[in-house]
Design a protein that fits this description.
Length: 229
C-alpha cells in the first residue's frame, strides 16, 4: 500500500491548490492536504477480451511505476456532525489542472466528508503548453516532488487513495480523517472524470471492491481506455 504523509504546509503560496474559497470554519469543517506515494499498477484487457457494452470487463495487471500525488480532505471538525459517508471525488483535468467538478453544498449541510483526489497526470503536471496551471508548475516548492507518469496508473492511484480514507484505513502514523468513523465511500466524478469512473466501475471495482457506490454525472456513455495510445 502507498504511504500517506501530511498534513502538508508551506510552499510559495502557503496554501493548497484549490483550497476552499469560502469559510469552511463557519460551516464547521476542517481542510487538510496530504501526499500519497508508492507504486501504482496499470491494467489491460485480459487476452481474448475487450471493452464490453454490458459493462462486464475482464482485465489483468500489466506493470507498475512509482507515483506521488495529493489528496485534499475536508471533514467535519466535530465528529458528532459526521454522517459516516465520505465522497471521494475524482478531480476533473479537462483544462490541464484540477477542477473539483461535482462538489455540492449538500456535502457540508449533510455532514459528509469529501476527499479531492488528484489521480491524473494533467492535474499534477499540466498540459505541455501550460504546465504552470497544474500543481508542480503553480507551486514547485510545495508540489515539485509529485509525479504521475501516465493516466494508465490513475485507476490504481484512485484505489490506493480510497484505501487510505475508508473504514479499514491505516490510522497511524497519519489519519486524514482525524479519527472519524467512515462507514461508506461514494466515488464521484463529472464529465471527463465521469468517463474515467465509468471505466473504473466496469474494470477495476470488480477486482478491488474499494467503494460502496458511484455518482457518475454528465456521462456520455463511453468509458476511458485502460491503456494510453
Amino acid at each position: 500500500m502507498a504511504t500517506l504523509t501530511g498534513p502538508i504546509t508551506g510552499g510559495l503560496h502557503g496554501w493548497a491548490f484549490g483550497a476552499a474559497a469560502f469559510d469552511l470554519g463557519a460551516l464547521g469543517y476542517v481542510e487538510e492536504e496530504f501526499f500519497l506515494g508508492g507504486e501504482a499498477e496499470r491494467y489491460r484487457h485480459a487476452p481474448g477480451t475487450a471493452r464490453a457494452l454490458d459493462g462486464r470487463w475482464t482485465v489483468e495487471r500489466a506493470g507498475s511505476a512509482p507515483f506521488r500525488t495529493r489528496i485534499l480532505v475536508r471533514r467535519p471538525a466535530d465528529p458528532a456532525r459526521f454522517k459516516g459517508t465520505l465522497v471521494a471525488l475524482w478531480n476533473n483535468v479537462s483544462l490541464g489542472f484540477d477542477i473539483f467538478a461535482g462538489e455540492s453544498p449538500e456535502v457540508y449541510r449533510g455532514g459528509y466528508a469529501i476527499a479531492l483526489v488528484s489521480a491524473q497526470r494533467a492535474g499534477v503536471h499540466g498540459f505541455p503548453m501550460t504546465p504552470e496551471r497544474a500543481l508542480t508548475g503553480w507551486d514547485p516548492a510545495r508540489y515539485g516532488g509529485l509525479r504521475i507518469d501516465s493516466d494508465e496508473y490513475s485507476f490504481d492511484i484512485f484505489t490506493q487513495a480510497v484505501r487510505h480514507l475508508g473504514p479499514d484505513r491505516p490510522r497511524t502514523p497519519v489519519d486524514p480523517l482525524g479519527g472519524l468513523a467512515v462507514r461508506k465511500i461514494i466515488a464521484a466524478g463529472a464529465s471527463q472524470s465521469a468517463v474515467r469512473l465509468a471505466t473504473y466501475l466496469n474494470a477495476i471495482q470488480p477486482l478491488t471492491h474499494a467503494v460502496d457506490a458511484f455518482f457518475i454525472q454528465i456521462y456520455f456513455g463511453n468509458g476511458a481506455p485502460l491503456e494510453e495510445p
